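To assess whether the prediction recovers the assembly geometry, we first specified each molecular entity separately, as shown.
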Amino acid sequence: MNNQKKNRLIDKAFSVWGFTSSLLGLIALAIFIGDILNTGLSRLSWEFITSLPSRFPNRAGIYTALLGSAWILVLTTLIAFPIGVMAGIYLEEFQKKSRFANLMEINLSNLAGVPSIIYGLLGLELFVRAYHLGPSIVAGSLTLALLILPIIIVTTREALRAVPQSIKDASYSLGATKLQTIWYHCLPISIGGIFTGVILAISRAVGEAAPLIVVGALAYVPFAPKSPFDSFSVLPIQIFNWISRPQSGFTVNAAAGIIVLLLLTFVMNGLAIYLRYKWQKKVKL
Amino acid sequence: MKTDRYTLLLTERIIKRLLQGAALVTVFTTLFIIGTLIFETYNFFREIPLVNFLFDTEWTPLFDNKKYGILTLLSGTFLTTFFAIVIAVPLGLSIAIYLNEYTNKRIRNILKPTLELLAAVPSVVYGFFALTVVTPFLQRFIPALSTFNSLSAGIVMGIMIIPFISSLSEDALSAVPSSLREAAYGMGATRFQTVFKVTVPAANSGIIVSIILAISRAVGETMIVAIAAGQQPRLTLNPLVPVETITAYIVQVSMGDVPHNSMEYRTIFAAGITLFIFTFILNNISFYLRKKFKERYE
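The predicted structure of the complete assembly is given in tokenized form:
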């Protein structure tokens, strides 16, 4: 075999290996989802979704955890969305190059890399203790809002950066101010990209368990939370709790809970991918 | 007309301040994180000498005979991170190279978002996977493997962070100017030769950034290790036995009812600041490298 043939063979082999690698992770995911469906699907019923937690696996349900997750989702979005988009607009459109600006960039990239459990420690000390909010839904939402803020800011900035300069120039040349240009032109164009980022961030918040455990969310909540100051549980924590128990009935419950959680995250991610696809088409005009 | 313009500009200045205020939230978040960690850790070290914290070989704050050797928790974190990286780096890099140099745009547009689903799955779910699927599977080949172990937790974490490496490395590879690539092809190089002799060396700092960020992510990952690696602090490099990572310890303490101002309460902050220092260093190295990389090709 001459050198050229050998090189071509190596090239082909790597092509096959690359394709296999791409599939390997997905195959693992597929096996896992298959296993989860196999274990949990039979347990999934309307009763499972509307039942309170219980010591008996076949009577326990995810009602309170699901409500807790819904509360957390809404409140976290209400807090993080406006602040994140506003901060993103400021950093992308108004901040001039300076040493402080450079520090802001370093800070933002650092925050995005802080482990979620550290945010939990912050929330515990700041919201639960210092502000006396207790282990409540508000404290949990504020903590998760801080956690997803960097994600929202970064995607807002990327979306704004994709707005063509020609559109801004046209707006300025008609006498529009900077904010008018941003409000009437940049934001409508970039809103698809911003929503994509926000949905991905919220989907991350819904799946988080660690920071909320540290803040003091409970594993067992026998009543549905009625106000944002009530104690709460969320779906991932309920699942964690069931996984930690030895009886096999709870393993089945955990699998059924995971099906619901995965459904939530996949729907949100699907929506985000769809929005991004539509938006990218629009921006290319 | 003139006054209109005046009020308009005034409103703009007020709104600009509001936007600036929102941006400053991020600064305060960082300050508060560092502040709380240092405050509670200071209280911790008023009672426990730093030497004990760094060199004791046991971590037993929840028992009667209290020992505070952080190395014990670090060994757990090291083990799980190590296996995650061993899985994620070769796979993630191969995927990045394959997507960038070997496939056409259509396949890339399908594969990339599908792979990102791996990072979207909540980590509690991966923990369940590690405990109920991977560990029993591995036990068929390694009978000595305990129900809780760092090996399966690490492997599953590796699958989770594949997209971090593949996505960021792919960005770095596609930022390499195509003139370099075309020059290699022009000399008669195969795709494989072009990739490993030209594209990858040209994108190396971007690739290193992706690996560093993945390590940082693995070090801070919590639920997978809390579920599958166990909650038994142990200074060991044996991947088959239960261990406890820094993050799993924080979860373990938080699940119980710990009174404020107690020593147990402070230990989670001492453990937290150790974790924070590691990720802080990793994140800053990657920020610095990324900036260098951008300067080179822009």
